[in-house]
Amino acid sequence: MHKIFHGAGVALITPFGGDLQIDFNSLGKLVDSQIGNHMDFLVVLGTTAETATLSHAERQLLIDFVIEKSAGRVPVMVGVGGNSTSDVIDQLKSLNLQKADGILSVVPYYNKPSQEGIYQHFMAIAATSPVPIVLYNVPGRSAISMTADTTLRLAHDAENIIGTKEASGNFGEIIKILKGKPDRFSVITGDDSLIVPTTSIGGEGVISVAANLIPRQISAMTHYALNGDYNSAAAIQLDIQSLVEDLFAEGNPSGVKAAMHSVGLCENVVRLPLVPVSEKLYNSLAEKTKRLL
Q: Which residues have a catalytic role annotated?
């Protein structure tokens, strides 16, 4: 069975210029670099894109730009989520998603709903979305974790819920999902440190932050692992681990933007409430990035 989102995906940053406006020139180069380095799909408007700071108009501009720039070379997933079900439904109706290949929708944050509330939230989205849905479980940001039982319930009850981005790091729950899911449903890790471990037990890829900076390594590692060459995959995982830890040391995407700036890929600019990383971390990121590139 062909699956739309399989292999190495990247959670694209939103580059900004010194005026805090979107730097489409840098974004265009980033999209071409990702595809040129064999990334399998792109994610726009994820957490890494600083979506919470973007206006509705900016979100649509980014969707249109990335889809046009990718020109059908790889699938494009669009982040459409929130902690108000009605607001998410309004986004689905107001955003032009006709050329998108799917959406990524996060577990509602801040409200701390029950598992039944999470289930009903996503079933309401499934009844509205014009494109397939990938769930996004990230308890580090949402303050609550969607259980494996809820994930499996959604996977079996809604045909257009086609996968989950699992960033819980809970292998017991991930194994339970892998054992109970329908064949059409994909489990994708959201943690750059867990690409090899997750694929080794049946996961089908990654949505990576580090790939913004090192797409060649992330792509190669993921494809090695999916093809069963765990020795080659593990060698890359171990080689990049120190850099990956630095990327998240003072928040995402502040870390990855600093590293990208050190090699001329974008400006070192984030929107408040995020701020650039400290000079000490910047220097560490620059040193480790230079070694890998």
A: 136, 165
Domain boundaries, the chain: 7-229
| Cα–Cα distance list, 187 to 81, 102, 122 (Å) | 19, 15, 17
> From first to last of its 293 residues, what are the pLDDT tens digits of the chain?
578 999 999 999 999 999 999 999 999 999 999 999 999 999 999 999 999 999 999 999 999 999 999 999 999 999 999 999 999 999 999 999 999 999 999 999 999 999 999 999 999 999 999 999 999 999 999 999 999 999 999 999 999 999 999 999 999 999 999 999 999 999 999 999 999 999 999 999 999 999 999 999 999 999 999 999 999 999 999 999 999 999 999 999 999 999 999 999 999 999 999 999 999 999 999 999 999 98
CATH class as words, domain 7-229: alpha beta
